[in-house]
Amino acid sequence: MWSFFMNKSFLSFVTIPFLTLTGLAVGAFFHLTGNAKLDQTVWMITIIIGAGPLVFRLIKDLLRGHFGVDIIAITAIVTSFILGQYLAGSVIVLMLSGGEALEAYALRRARKELTQLISNAPSVAHIKTNSGLLDVQASEVKIGDIIVIKPGEAVPVDGIVLEGKSEVDESALTGESVPKEKQTGSLLLSGSINKENPLEIKAVRQANESKYEQIIKLIKDAEESRAPVVRLADRYSVWFTAITFFIALLAWLVSHDPVRLLAVLVVATPCPLILATPIAIISGLAKSASRGIIIKSGSALENLAEADAFIFDKTGTLTLGTPEVFKVSSEEKQVLEIATSLDQLSAHILARSLVTYSQKNNVKISYPKNFKEVFGEGVTGEIEGKQYYFGKLKFLQSNGIKVDESIKKSHDQLQGSGTIAVYLGQGEKLLGSVMFADKIRPEIKNVFRDLKNLGMEKIVMLTGDKQSVADNIGRQLGLTDIHAESLPEDKVNEVKDHKKQFGKVAMIGDGVNDAPALAAADVGIALGGHGSTASSDTSDIVITVDNLERVGEAYKIARQVMRIAKQGIFIGMGVSILLMFIAAAGKIMPVYGALLQEVLDVIVILNALRVNFEKV
What we know:
The protein is of the alpha+beta class. Among the domains are: 123-156 and 158-205, Calcium-transporting ATPase, cytoplasmic transduction domain A (Distorted Sandwich); 293-320 and 440-556, Rossmann fold, CATH 3.40.50.1000; 322-438, 3-Layer(aba) Sandwich (Calcium-transporting ATPase, cytoplasmic domain N), CATH 3.40.1110. Strands 10-22-21-20-11-18-19 form a seven-stranded mixed β-sheet, sandwiched between helices. A six-stranded antiparallel β-sheet has the order 2-1-3-9-4-7, with no helix packed on it. Strand 16 (420-426) and strand 17 form a beta hairpin. Helix 11 (271-289) runs antiparallel to helix 23 (549-584). 46% of the residues are buried. The model is unreliable at 1-11, 106-120 and 225-230 (pLDDT under 50).
């Protein structure tokens, strides 16, 4: 707890409001005890201490070309100091610094940018030498070095396979859900995961030129190219400031009383404008967090509310990301029993999926004799004295199983649609097949329905998968805007193109290959429940639960927050303009005007807190 209060960032935005409040309290004490000179002195010092940093920051903003509503408050503070209205000036300092503290708290970024992504990059390489394996940093690998990739390890640098055969998961890099078989001559990309057997590769690029590093660079470039977000209240600053100064100047010219000018400036002090957005945003962030939606900044929430298009990655986002059993042909029970009995001894990703499916469906599983696995091809073993083969079509044919031309044709069609068929045979007979596919998330149609009900018309699918696979998924989801075979740099370009065409873009993804696009979008949403650290780090919003419906909820909350924030802004401006005319007529003294502003602040805060109570 103590470390929290000693945290530099915390102290930086509570110091001025704390000192100002203390000064007001001490001055009030002297005033109530009859020390009239001391109270004015304390309030004067309070203005100097509190307003100094605020004025300095305003000057810096103006020099950078940034014009905001704070200029009214600073003008009111300086005018109150010149006219000796120290109490009114101190109250304005408290209002302004308190509003800025709330805004800073709401808008400060909670993410670590790219530090965790970079730390998760493959760091160690096993170089093969005459005396064995030598472990070195990936950055020390030279082109031509022979590297051994053990099962379960990430590939440290791009290389060509010299020896070995294994399946490699490239889904985080390319978006393709099914692991690829790698053998002699295959290109292995850094950041991919070796799933099965050891591989020897020859480095063809150094670590800083590898695929993983290219992705990191894309992310950095996208982050740096983001346009700065304009504060919601500042959008109305120019005309509200013009109205304020016009009424204040008119009051002075008509009455020749500078106190009336000050009174107008005091009641115009835009604290309701400053408070409305951050209070609503803080409430929205808390509400989202309770639903497993971590929104890292207020600007992310604002951008999400104003999104004109939603772009979804396919693998792991619209789909579950791992192939699952969806159909068993021929004699279902017999095929499942025999196939699962054989596959239970295999470490292949499809074998694990089949065993899980059979266990859920209470399929009887036997233990095979003389089990043998031909990696990447299939398995064979004896069950109740009969020799069975389960694997690829070519594997069964090579073991004497006869396959009709119609089956071959059907197999080719299945592959084109993204379906993986694994066949079971015995003797010369083909007994049946088990089909696997990356399943569509069951909740996705509800997500699309909710988005469309909220007025979102542009929904796009991006994927690194084949066009035929993407089209098949798109048809099932009713999507027509589909972009397939997209590498990370292609996804970034698609996001940029959609931003030019439609406006603000929200990108939803989960893999390393999505991270650059997430960073390039106006708001990036990562599925962090099972997604990569890369996508979570570079995104603006992280869904911590494995449920895509939270995307729709986040959009609803964002729109709700902005609606209530704008209500507060317009209420504040409307009441302030009314009070300006009353103050111009000499009916409100500066101190009372400051107190009326405090009442207005309370109204705006209570309105903003409605975010917590309205249903999503």
